[in-house]
Design a protein that fits this description.
With about 375 residues, the protein is mainly β. It has one domain: Porin, CATH 2.40.160. The chain has a 17-stranded antiparallel beta sheet that branches. A two-stranded antiparallel sheet has the order 10-11.
Amino acid sequence: MVLLGSTPLCADVLSFFNPDYSQNKSYATSFQTFIANDPVSVEALFNDWEGDFHPKDGTNLALESSRFDIGAVLKNNLYIGYTYRHDVFISASHDLTVLNKLIKNKLDLPIDKNFDLSLDIEGFEAQGIVLAKEFTFTLNEESSLSVSLSTSFLYASNMQDGTLSGVASVSSKKDYDFYATSKYFYTHNYLYDLSVDRSYGLGFTTHMTLAYQYNDFSMLFIANDIFGRIYWDNLPYSYVEMSSANKYYDKDGYVHYNPTIWGYETQENFVQELPLKLHVQASYIIVDKYAISAGMQYMYETSLPFAELSYMPDDGELYYMSYESRFGSTTLGMQYHNISVSLSADKIIAPSSVGTQVSAFLNF
């Protein structure tokens, strides 16, 4: 969202902490969520990978970035509130996405093909308390600068941090063999069925926002999780090797597995580093009531460039459209006085990326 006199409540597709300090003595709340992946639609991602299939040639990504905040902006630009966060990031090799598509839909396998099986997953679910303070500086009659610093104290209930690597060799149109190795910290084991004692983590993180305005030009820089850590006690960890030694066939002749697994399971104290999340944006009022913006968001070593066009018919009103090029997501949004709403998707039918942001404040 364009910076025009005050910092925005939300920031394009990814979820960020960035409250509107211009509304002193107010209650504020926001909900932000964005889900995207490369190979299939969002619906197919959580089902059987049916429908259109459009994987990237190299690494394929899937991510979810969500947060909910509710709090109060007190006098002297002091914010205190509650936050809930849920972030997941998965990267997979092109071969793994193709093989998964073929297997789930019982499609013929390419004979004598060797598939590279590579997957990385990171994520966490946490809630906690946020404390923040904004400092405003008037540089001269034409320019101003605001700096916001914040810290969160987190209680984490779920996490994923692991890698899988291996190879699958096709022997017929319906049969293949595989070998893979996994190194995996988790609170729930999605790789194979295993019951473990529940683990919890305690941690903290820090955020910073810089907002600069000079006449009709403005710049916004948001850095979330500059230094974020979650400390897990007795967190389950597995190192396992898996093979296709134990296989069976269904009535159509397609292979299925109860994989042979060997290795070890243990519990370890683990420090999870939260990934840096960035939003950089420059905006300019080109003519009366119209502004253009360009910028980039960054998360898990992935850049999401975007461009935006905004229309401001009156004070307290803002309508905008932005396009994010990494997942091809278009966002339509509006701010009407104390309410902001936006919707994002790469297409209307069977989208591969979807998102929404809703925020509001109430003066007291």
